[in-house]
């Protein structure tokens, strides 16, 4: 509430304050989404090493749960926290399949979902789990490497999308502070409101198109 009231005092225009207040309300969601994506990327980068620990534990004669305990103890966060939570659920009586599926649903990682699917399949039909996890670890490492190369090659496009998305908003905010009367017509005149709405829609469409172009699935 404080930010829109401050804008009303500075600009004397209720519509400008509402517009900027809506933008300010989106910032926490954007920040949360960025943090979630960074956490997911970090978790995916740790997954192959954790599978290596699990594979070595199984080959040394440890059980699957003992291997998970070793992974939880030796893997850094955030992946260690997810393993510890799954182990805690199992210790409280939750079936292993349910605990692993809960872990996959919480994390939302395609790589982790592949690992858990392989583990659950092996528990049903049998097989050498250590060899299965070793092969999956190699696949995940290759995917991480390819994703890194794609990220490097598409860096220019992602930066262009960021500039295209932020530049009009920054310029609008500067004009509101420097000369509210000059830009205020966009919020008071019908044609100004229509132009502002059309510009906002165009910005959103442009950012989504650029994001789809540079977001290459592996």
From TrEMBL:
This is Type II secretion system protein. GO terms for cellular component: plasma membrane. The lineage of its organism: Bacteria, Bacillati, Bacillota, Clostridia, Thermoanaerobacterales. It is a multi-pass membrane protein. Pfam families: T2SSF. Keywords: Cell membrane, Membrane, Transmembrane, Transmembrane helix. Gene3D superfamilies: Type II secretion system (T2SS), domain F (1.20.81.30). The chain crosses the membrane at residues 6-30, 159-178, 190-210. It is found in: Cell membrane. Residues 54-176 form the Type II secretion system protein GspF domain. InterPro entries: T2SS_GspF_dom, T2SS_GspF_sf. Signal peptide: none annotated. Its main location: membrane. It comes from Syntrophaceticus schinkii.
